[in-house]
Inverse folding.
């Protein structure tokens, strides 16, 4: 009887590679290169700190003055957020 050994999962290198935010995104999270996971974390910190989730539908994020240039509209769903942010990372 063979025993399967569990190996610890290594984080995907693509997610850990620091990426440079565009000037529009840098206005929200800062200009330092960050891994994609940290960029997402910082955007959510900003959204929660400024209470930008729509009270009626928490999946929607209302844009304030800093987020409007990034979103290019007044409200986006949390599912659109990743796609929008990807376009602002190099």
């Amino acid at each position: 009887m063979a025993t399967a050994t569990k190996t610890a999962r290594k984080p995907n290198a693509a997610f850990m590679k620091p990426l440079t935010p565009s000037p529009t995104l840098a206005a929200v999270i800062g200009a330092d290169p960050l891994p994609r996971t940290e960029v997402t974390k910082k955007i959510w910190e900003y959204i929660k700190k400024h209470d930008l989730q729509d009270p009626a539908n928490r999946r929607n994020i209302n844009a304030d003055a800093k987020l409007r240039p990034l979103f290019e509209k007044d409200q986006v769903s949390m599912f659109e957020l990743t796609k929008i942010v990807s376009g602002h990372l190099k």
Q: What stands out?
A: The chain has five helices and two strands. The mean pLDDT is 89.
